[in-house]
Structure formats: structure tokens, C-alpha cells
Amino acid sequence: MGDVEAGFAKLQGEDFEYYMQTYSIVLGRNSKKSVVDVDLTSLGGGMNISRHHARIFYDFQRRRFALDVIGKNGCLVEGVLHLPGNPPVKLDSQDLLQIGDKKFYFLLPVRGILHPSLLRSRPPPPPPPPIPVPPSHALPVTPPPSIAPSALLGSGKKGHGRLKLPPPQPDYDPMGKRPRKGDPDTALGFGSSSGSGGSSVAKASGVGMQL
């Protein structure tokens, strides 16, 4: 299986198959003086086959396989006769070749024809374009103004100070009522409730805060 997967191309006949594992092979017939890669005479090619009849090779300049005709009787490629001296014939996958009486197909592998060590390294794909982020329509958040500690604490004796109340805000009432001027509970935003919360604030304002 390892040799089959490493093959560059394949010759497929009715009764034989040959996997190319080099970039050039010679087809013809064996003799006492030379041995070819594919002996077509032993495969039933007849007597019209020369010792060196044809050569199939990979053309690195054009990046394709080609057939170079050497034998005087020529070769048929897709029914067209090619004779010695003609330019090499480009071979495509599934081309039908005939040398002498032997017919066979030239086939290319599905996953490329070159050995991985000879393939050019492909550059990495470009990164995908950034996804545009729609602008936010939210209003900017303004931080609340800082109040200095000196503005909250009045001067007093031995560290005791009185809580300095902010001025009343007549236009803002969280309880839904308009405040009355001079009401310290309302100025703090607690409303006019007469519960325990209002009395505790009044006591705190009388005693003051200790730091």
C-alpha cells in the first residue's frame, strides 16, 4: 500500500497496471542489451514495438506529464498518431494510449502528482477581516461630582463636628412631594415621614459625627 500511495501516475490496461514512482519511465521491450521499465511485448503488445518506444516524463517547467515518442512506429494518444521528432505530447488523466497492439490509460492520482517534498510550501491563508462593531448609541456616563470631606464636616472642638447639610432642592422630591424650605428631613431626601427614621436623623444631627 505504501508504494501505491507514493505513485505519481498510473498506467492501467485490461490485464496490467503500472504505478510510476519516478519522474521518467521508458516503455518498449526488453532485450539482451537493455531493460525497460514497462515491457509491452510481454504484455501482448506485438512485434511493432521498439526496444525504446516511448518515454513518459514529468515536465517541471510546464508542471505536467508528457509523452516523448521514440519508436519509428509512433504512438496513438486519444486516437491521434504522434511520430518521432514531434514535440512531446501533453498527457491528461484518463488519456487513452496505444503502442503497438497494446492499449492502456494514463491516470493521475486525485491528491496531486508530485511527492510532498517537491511541492511548494503554500503560504498561510490571510486572516479573516475584522467584524465591524456598530457604534454604541448609549449616552456617556458622567461620574458624580466628588465632595471634599471638609465640605461635609464643620469645625468643632476636639474632633467633634456637625454634619453640614446640602442646600434644599425644591425641584426634586423622590417621594413625589415638593419639599418645604427649612425642613432638614426633607432636605436630606427622606420626605415628611414622622416614623422612627425621621426621629433618628434628628438625634444624629444634634449629637454630630465623631471621626
UniProtKB/TrEMBL annotation:
Principal location: nucleus
Q: Where is the composition biased (Pro residues)?
A: 122-147
Query: Which InterPro entries does its entry note?
Result: FHA_dom, Fhl1/FHA1, SMAD_FHA_dom_sf
Q: Where is this region: Disordered?
A: 119-211
The FHA domain covers which part of the protein? 25-82
Cellular localization per UniProt: Nucleus
Please give the superkingdom of this protein's source.
Eukaryota
Q: Which GO terms describe its cellular component?
A: nucleus
Q: Is Nucleus there in the keyword field?
A: yes
Keywords, in A-Z order: Nucleus
Gene Ontology MF term list:
sequence-specific DNA binding
Q: Which CDD domains does UniProt cross-reference here?
A: FHA_FKH1-like
Q: Which GO terms describe its biological process?
A: regulation of ribosomal protein gene transcription by RNA polymerase II
Say if the entry is tagged with keyword Nucleus: yes
Q: What is this protein called?
A: FHA domain-containing protein
